[in-house]
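Recap quiz, item 2
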Amino acid sequence: MTPFRLAQAQINCTVGDLIGNTEKICQWIQRARALNADLVSFPELTITGYPPEDLVLKPQFVADNIDALQVVAAEAKGIVVVVGFVDYANGLYNAAAVLAHGKVQGVYHKHHLPNYGVFDEKRYFLTGREQHVLVVNGVSVGLNICEDMWAPRGPIRIQASGGATVIVNISASPYQIGKIDERERMLRTRAKRNLAIVAFNNLVGGQDELVFDGRSMIVDHEGHLLARGKAFEEDLVVADINIQDVLESRKHKQSRSDRPSTRMQSVTRIVCSDKPYAGTRVKVSPSVGETLTTCEEVYRALCLGIRDYVSKNGFSSVAIGLSGGIDSALTAALAVDALSPRQVLGVFMPSRHTSQASRVDVESLVRNLGIHLRTISIEEAYTAFLNMLSDAFQETKTDATEENIQARIRGAVLMALSNKFGWLVLSTGNKSEMSVGYATLYGDMAGGLSVLKDVPKTMVYRLARFRNAMTSSAVIPEHTLQRAPTAELRADQTDQDILPPYDILDPILEAYVEGNQAVAKIAALGFDASTVEQVGRMVDGCEYKRRQAPVGIKITSRALGKDRRMPVTNRYTGTS
Amino acid sequence: MTPFRLAQAQINCTVGDLIGNTEKICQWIQRARALNADLVSFPELTITGYPPEDLVLKPQFVADNIDALQVVAAEAKGIVVVVGFVDYANGLYNAAAVLAHGKVQGVYHKHHLPNYGVFDEKRYFLTGREQHVLVVNGVSVGLNICEDMWAPRGPIRIQASGGATVIVNISASPYQIGKIDERERMLRTRAKRNLAIVAFNNLVGGQDELVFDGRSMIVDHEGHLLARGKAFEEDLVVADINIQDVLESRKHKQSRSDRPSTRMQSVTRIVCSDKPYAGTRVKVSPSVGETLTTCEEVYRALCLGIRDYVSKNGFSSVAIGLSGGIDSALTAALAVDALSPRQVLGVFMPSRHTSQASRVDVESLVRNLGIHLRTISIEEAYTAFLNMLSDAFQETKTDATEENIQARIRGAVLMALSNKFGWLVLSTGNKSEMSVGYATLYGDMAGGLSVLKDVPKTMVYRLARFRNAMTSSAVIPEHTLQRAPTAELRADQTDQDILPPYDILDPILEAYVEGNQAVAKIAALGFDASTVEQVGRMVDGCEYKRRQAPVGIKITSRALGKDRRMPVTNRYTGTS
């Protein structure tokens, strides 16, 4: 028996770009057909991009996406295609269309709709109920969508019991640290338990706060990884599958999955083609790809997040306020790696509180990265503000107000450059600062994309060292890595005047923000109770700032965005 | 038979304030008991406040809310109490507890969880399945929560078939224009169809972008309104119900509701007390309250939204940038009516482009409202910015950049006053501007609460005239109402240099933003196609600004906040 050639198109779609996505899908169908693949699959909601959010509430958008599906269907000749789209059938469904012979042969509706974390699928979609098994060149293929595979009692059981030897799962699974291992474990379990080949076709690319990391996988019925797509890049993952082995294993071993015979009736069979490919095919040697360290993974996720936010929103350059500190240095390095040195502009905006060391560090960084630098002192505007406010502020003491004024002047300068030249401003605050509110709203928080918003300060250091080790000579000055963190908004200031040391703050924040743990429980882990309480109060007290922050790239299990929806008005302290 | 005395406590809770809410609930139980009510109900999620959002993902918060319920239960003596809380039973439920004899007698779990518009209840809660009928002094009372009543095939059918003559529905139904009529129609329909007294106990108060308008209602089995609570205020709504009439009507008329006998088994009966009240009670004369005009309603909703945002977030005063235009004038009038003149500070920040007429109008407004005014010219800072940027901007033309700089200086001045004196900044942009992006991010968009964010410009005018008619002499100067709208950021500027006239723009925006209608469909309503296309492009192009806007008070069917979740990165134009 000729092996079954399965292709997964791990492509980078753009939300709302129905025409662009359709063209790309057609090109990748051609690529898969050129390899004589039996079937090529695409990621979840391929045609609309993922997540389309409230776009799907526009009836015209849904109609246009169905028109686009017809364009793709016309291309599906000599190969079976599985593509994601929004179906309308007395309500909306997150759907996968099966295309063959130039036509839509059947449509599967997602059963399990995630409605937690960053997901809102129950806002849009109805729950699918039907089961589908395609018959492609004699091979039975079960079909489901993303979360369907994560649910232990999901459609795979019925599909495998209904005869499917290959399960195609089209996904849009966002990146977060550690997710790849979770996915692989889950796929191995499903494959072994159901004695089926499991093919997870992931999306790749950045969309607002999400980055999809690709790394599509094909796992055989014994739980071995047959192929894995590239990380953070488009890829065509192709594998030849010996279906005979799967059938043999089923004869010898009783599958552990339930096989209620009544349920088998509910499976709809879609016969797409009836003759296995007879010619000779170019050999393919599937790769299981590289295994990345956490730093490598996060670094590449951030680069892809920047690159796609910039390009998909039609920008060609970015501006970054460089302070001589580590956050802005890392952001600049990421931007250069995501784009190119000539697309990145550094802006140094010294004040009376800026040290000579900061200036030296900025100059080294800019030289190392090969980017252009513009220096604009904020002194004149700062003096002007102090004069303008002198009446109002008489008999008051200098406090954080004056610090915020400096930060806001810098924000306004960056925005003026953005407005005049069309550069996107990248803001540079890290997750630790954004969590406790150690940032100025409309000041250093200003920008279109907040690159490090989900990166804790301790990880900022790790990433900076990782980046420095990538090239023969370090790009981020060693002094920047060594100096005490400071906002330089008044004399002799350091972050630790107000905040606990970052190696204490970060694990507290992880427990409090990501883990939803109570103050008393965190203190019981070995932290000073009053410190934990203070951190909790700081986090709760600045929800209004976070609400007005730019989107940032999610890399942890709970980012400060769609992932965490706290009320601004909130009297709960957790210490009552 | 003694009439059944039903009390509805229409109270203003605060999200997260478990202690404060619990104290208030206990006080209102005492008030209802003093009137010898048989039963007193409270709004949905009374103990936590509504909506608690991701607070309920904190296990300690849920545990604390269950502790608070025990405190309330201890107060429930000599009266049956229905109160909303978050239940934990192998998962979270939006729940109503039945309290009597100082103990929790039973718990109902909400069946229908709204997950559209501003609602995310499927993110948090599992679906309830059980039915409950309480027996209170010989009267059978069905119990359900908010959306349960809106679903035509909701729990009321089973509860009424199971013998309930009174249905208590505890709600947190947010205000929007026209909602009161929808509610009343729905309640009448449910009451008549099920031959039951229907009691809708609504929440009152502001919570971030939502305002709950109260106006709880009791409708009899023939669809007549027996009582209605106050609008936008706390109220104890009490009515004496003749249950005999309901029972009679059921004898004579076949109820139109389905009564499948098998379903009756699934109703849990909770016997709370067994003896009707025997003494003499003070007479109550329930009122059906006033009917408000749209302007009255919206005006009061905005006042309550301001008042509660300010007080629940611990502020005592607000600062408003006054330009001489209608938006800031209306915002100031609302703030004065929501708070008091001495809690409102006007800040006038003239530039070279500010007309003498604007100054005169600001001075009249401030005099009419009796608020304090501070004038801070922005010229010095503006000159400073132009000097600082002169190198960068050489050989460029003056454009919107320079206008935005002025707006951002004003934003920074207001924020400096806020930082120094603890005043909350109210931003003043209207929905028309916020929809098309005719506003400066970090400039006039800066602030903690965006009062008019959901009020279209044409309605701003209506509200201003309404406010002027409220008092013997107008507070908003007639010249402000008459002049052409202008941002005064360059010479001889008017809004209509860029935007279509507001009486054309607003209906287009209503169709596009609230109605999700396609450009071609809107044009077919009689608008110039290129104008509609231009408006659509403007709306789509400034999602990044709206994402960073302060929360605003919802008054329409679709506000620019949780109600409308559009991707920032989005290539759909709707005109392809």
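Chain B touches chain A through 87 residues (CB under 8 Å).
Chain B is about 40% helix and 20% strand.
End of item.
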